Amino acid sequence: MQTSFVLMSVDQGIHDTTSVIDAAACGLSSGEGWSVRMQRLSGGLSDGVDVVWLNNGCTRIALLPTRGMGVWKAESAGLPLEWKSPVERPVNPAFVDPMRRGGIGWLDGFNELICRCGLGWNGAPGTDKITDESGKVVSEQFLPLHGRIANLPAHEVTVEIADDGAISVVGVVDESSMFGGRLRLISRLTTYPGSTSFEIMDEVRNPGSSPAEVEMLYHCNFGRPLLEGNSVLHIAASEIVPRNARAAEGIATWNRYTDPEPGYAEQVYFARPIADESGRGLAVLSNADADRGVAVRFDVDTLPWFSVWKNTQAEADGYCTGLEPGSSFPNLKTFERRHGRVISLPSDAEVTFRLAFTAAIDSEDVRQLVAEVAELQSGRPMVVTSKPRPDWCDC
Length: 395
What we know:
Elements: E1 2-9, E2 14-15, E3 21-22, E4 35-40, E5 50-55, E6 59-64, E7 70-76, E8 79-81, H1 100-103, E9 114-117, E10 126-131, E11 137-143, E12 156-162, E13 167-177, E14 181-191, E15 197-205, E16 212-214, E17 217-222, E18 232-235, E19 237-242, H2 245-248, E20 267-273, E21 280-286, E22 293-299, E23 305-311, E24 320-326, H3 333-338, E25 343-345, E26 350-360, H4 363-377, E27 383-384
Parallel strand pairs: 19-27
Antiparallel strand pairs: 1-2, 1-12, 3-4, 4-5, 5-6, 6-7, 7-8, 9-17, 10-11, 12-13, 13-14, 14-15, 15-26, 16-25, 17-24, 18-21, 19-20, 20-23, 21-22, 22-26, 23-24
């Protein structure tokens, strides 16, 4: 049993920015301190952007139905989970031209804590070429950076309160085009009252009559206070590879961070994560004093690859690191298809992606998470390669 509330439904003509969903609204005598409400922003590039504020009494999360159900920012027990992009506020997709700047206009709206890259593709811009068995090119299409889903609005948003206290926000987003395929994202973000954790479960469905290709990458981005000089990324992985020659320059310190460096050129590292007994990988970012951090857990079955984006440029230019579980690497789709990392989803089928986030708010929390990574890595060597792998890196 559960109690459901509709915040938005295009089909039903509902757009509710007045209701506050809390224990009292659910007829509960206990569980005070949590709430869910929706706000519509006005003015500037944020005009018309909806924000769903979910507060579980300890962790406050801002979801963006207007931007593919991305997570703008969060705060847990006073610990900010966010980064400071030059794009200071959520941008209505109407103001984002993905073809701008040679296909990287996606960056004009990029400022979220969690931003999906997908659904049809997730990687670098370029012309995707599909070939037949003889190698003849049968289709060509230019694909701009990181796909469409982050700039597509949800047409339905509901809040569900379960008997066990779980609070979920569910959004439905369609990525469809005439003669261009159909994909549907059903995103569910769930947390519990008083928790420092939340989980995302995404179902990607193919309602079309033909098979559809799917790529998904979660661009999970962190800045201060977790990112600073001597912050460390801990991840259990069997192999670490630099994406290109620039990344290879820093391979000796691939998981360690510096203070902001004006003019720093980004470095990206690819990893093959190790799964625990439940099938989940684990990455932990800890600050310099190892007394604050964040853990990202993800299902390795459907998110078998991991990218580390180091972008420690000047503070004003977007000091940030990305911890990015993916169904593939963020290379051009043609390259990923050639190496068997693009999902082919049959008609009426679905694929489910799961990941969870936990804020570590003191040194004991960080110690336990780092120990968990070490235990997962124990007895399994990590191979750190000094050069890009030709089957991983399109460079």
